[in-house]
Amino acid sequence: MHCPFCRHPDSRVIDSRTSDDGLSIRRRRQCPQCGGRFSTIETASLNVIKRSGVIEPFSREKVMSGVRKACQGRPVTDGDLAVLAQKVEETVRQTGASQVDTNEIGLAILGPLRELDEVAYLRFASVYQAFESLEDFEAAIALLRADHAYAGTAGDDDADG
């Protein structure tokens, strides 16, 4: 790490702290040459391997723009999309891998999107999972209905007393 004051090629770490979100580390450094102090923020890189084989940095903005298309006309705000993108990034980072396939990102999107808006979920899933017929949509809707029925009966045992 070059000193921003004198460009000396080395520095000494004085203090390290994890950021509030746990995704980065703030380091306080001192230059042994000029004594200047400065801070750095370090984050682990996360790269995406696209279907074409191209590797690019993970982007929450790309997650949001991809999901935004599925959410057109739905009661979903940009804030909702930002939270969804953050959840997706956290899920992908928890794998511990520094490179992930676009397919893994798509899978990580499905759960939070389903919780956010089921219609947007069906739209996204239909493209992502390449639905080819009405039967594919019917099967996805049947799963949603089954989950609603299960959620409706869960917890009813406590009503007895």
UniProtKB/TrEMBL annotation:
Residues 46-136 form the ATP-cone domain. Its cofactor is Zn(2+). It comes from the Bacteria. A zinc finger (unnamed) spans 3-34. Binds 1 zinc ion. One of its GO terms (molecular function) is DNA binding. Keywords: ATP-binding, DNA-binding, Metal-binding, Nucleotide-binding, Repressor, Transcription, Transcription regulation, Zinc, Zinc-finger. Transmembrane segments: none annotated. GO terms for biological process: negative regulation of DNA-templated transcription. Pfam families: ATP-cone (PF03477), Zn_ribbon_NrdR (PF22811). Belongs to the NrdR family. HAMAP family: NrdR. Negatively regulates transcription of bacterial ribonucleotide reductase nrd genes and operons by binding to NrdR-boxes. This is Transcriptional repressor NrdR. The gene is nrdR.
